[in-house]
Design brief:
Length: 302
């Protein structure tokens, strides 16, 4: 059985966030949960609206709603892409052997979904070498820092409890958060050195910023220009033709050669149980997302 479980870790992160929020605002847990449900309903309507979603991620209870409702399924999907993509697996093992580390950038990484996914993939997969992950989370909402730090701590606590000292862990973590808005083109000149990463992941990012497609193209071009030759770009998004078209255009203009698109629809793995979310699950009576209808595609910088 894996040491890392999405719902268990997210439940712990949510519990400590809710406790801090309720104390700070002097409100009951139940009042906070009611607000979380309001955000779950609102966010779901925004994603279905057909226009660019307006999600108030700056609101702590909206971020808790994301951790509760979405993060586990997205992490499981990212893990699935890692499981299915042998090119990516080989790349990771080669990088670790050659550079003693693997540098990953989660672009629009939000709460640290991709970090959770990589931790569980490595935990289940146990590559021959210990992976040293250098993780850069890039997102315009700087408040996400609290959840990805909490996720990182929970991952480390679990590895320590199960395996003892760091030398025995399959993965060690270094992380940085960078608050970057891709529409703020005035800042581009300052970002060059941020983008020396080996692997870039955009999970449910293109569909979140589609009104800003030209900025996203410009940003990706600039990012690719600074990325090492042969660096990998993993795109994951909703299974709709328009996102495949957008990603193809982004990649073409930036000099990324895309492999074929892989459609994936399915459910979360059997080792995950939503009840592990704990207290909040018993209180809100809302089923978090457990399925997806998505695609993944891997690109390589030429
Ligand atoms: C749907 S979430 C995806 C989060 C994560 N990658 C996942 O798969 O769970 C989209 C993320 O994009 C970020 N975002 C939205 N607009 C952005 C922009 N203009 N620049 C940078 N990040 C942005 C949001 O803050 C949010 O964290």
């Amino acid at each position: 059985m894996p040491v890392i479980k999405y719902f268990e870790i997210l439940g712990k992160v949510i519990e400590s966030n809710i406790a801090q929020y309720a104390t700070l605002r002097k409100i009951t847990y139940d009042a906070a949960y009611t607000e979380v449900v309001r955000h779950l309903i609102n966010n779901s309507n925004e994603w279905k609206s057909g226009r660019q979603p307006q999600i108030p991620y700056h609101d702590p209870l909206c971020r808790i709603a994301y951790l509760y409702g979405i993060a586990a399924a997205n992490a499981n999907l990212v893990e699935k892409a890692f499981r299915e993509c042998t090119d990516l697996q080989n790349h990771i093992e080669e990088l670790q052997a050659r550079n003693d580390q693997v540098c990953v950038c989660a672009f629009g990484g939000g709460p640290g979904t991709e970090l959770l996914a990589i931790a569980k993939w490595v935990d289940k997969n146990r590559p021959s070498l210990q992976i040293t992950l250098d993780y850069l989370l890039l997102d315009k909402v700087s408040e996400w820092i609290e959840s990805w730090q909490a996720i990182k701590r929970q991952i480390e606590l679990r590895f320590r409890a199960d395996m003892g000292s760091k030398a025995n862990w399959p993965l060690t973590l270094n992380g940085t958060f960078s608050g970057i808005d891709i529409t703020d083109t005035s800042g581009f000149a300052n970002y060059g050195n941020v983008f020396g990463q080996d692997i870039y992941i955009m999970s449910y990012f293109v569909s979140e910023v589609f009104d800003d497609m030209e900025s996203l193209k410009d940003f990706t071009k600039m990012m690719v220009a600074h990325a090492p030759i042969n660096s990998k770009f993993l795109f994951i998004d909703r299974n709709e033709q328009k996102w495949k078209r957008s990603i193809t255009e982004i990649a073409d203009e930036a000099g990324i050669s895309l492999d074929r698109f892989h459609d994936v629809s399915g459910n979360m793995d059997n080792d995950e149980s939503k009840t592990d979310l704990g207290k909040i699950f018993d209180s809100v009576k809302w089923t978090p997302r457990l399925t997806w209808n998505a695609f993944w595609v891997l690109g390589t910088k030429n």
